[in-house]
Amino acid sequence: MVLRDAGRVNTLDCGNCEGILSKKRDQSQDRDSWLAEALELLRERGVDHVKVEPLAQRLGVTKGSFYWHFKNRNDLLNSLPEFWVRRQTDPVLATVAETDGSPIEKMRAILTFLAHEDPDRYDNAMRAWAQFDEDVARSVTEVDDRRMATARVLFEQAGLSQTDAAFRARLWYFYDVGEHVTHDTPTTITERLKRAEHRLKFLTSDLKTDD
After folding, report:
1. Distances from the Cα of 107 to the Cαs of 74, 114, 137, in angstroms?
2. Of 6, 74, 86, 158, which has the maximum CB count within 10 A?
């Protein structure tokens, strides 16, 4: 019996391994692309339809590329609330920090951002999912609290007492939620901007406008 060189038996010619791996990574969607498509599918059809195979078909990749980023479907679903917050709430709240001027100008900046981006379009899907998933329900509650707290602080800075600021923040936020729940959000940016300005007028006409 002839034994092959042990060094050759266990050695892989990896001169192009890095290139092959890079090509495979290029062919697979990045993690956020999977999550974005999952969020869209959640909005369209509900969480029961958020599965690997239909997502891969929508993204135009193989199922195998999914496992570059997630252990399994549960890993994807567990990652989805954080992605929703990062993509749909964090940018809105960042608008406050990035906007100069009075509290009312900051409110206007938020409403303008919302009118252009309509990030709340996924809220109904998350709220529906939260009805039977406690972890998702906690995420939704945390988002609601963060959003209302931001509005409350702005109303306080504009001169309202803590009690009145909290109440007016609820008026703002509950209107926003109700608009989406009842599917009453205008379809065009122009109409959304008009409605946003009208809301701002009713919410702030009695408040100070100086910095």
Report:
1. 38, 11, 27
2. 158
3-class SS at 182?
Answer: coil
Residues 30 and 50: their CA atoms lie apart, in Å, by 17
- Spans in the chain with pLDDT lower than 70: 1-29, 119-120, 209-211
- CA–CA distance, 49 with 59 (Å, rounded to integer): 15
- pLDDT in the model for residue 24: 43
- Residue 38 in contact with residue 76, Cβ under 8 Å? yes
DSSP 8-class letter at 64: G
DSSP 61: S
Q: Tell me which residue of 164, 162, 157, 168 sits closest to 200, measured CA to CA.
A: 168
The structural domains of the chain, with segments of one domain joined by +, span 29-84, 89-204
Distances (CA, A) of 207 to 88, 105, 158, 200: 28, 12, 6, 11
Q: Specify the pLDDT at position 205.
A: 92
How far apart, in whole angstroms, are the C-alpha atoms of residue 91 and residue 109? 12
Assigned token pair, 20: 């092959």
* Look-up of token digits 């956020």: 32
CA angle 111, 117, 123 (to 5 degrees): 90
pTM recorded for the entire structure: 0.80
The predicted pLDDT at position 119 comes to: 60
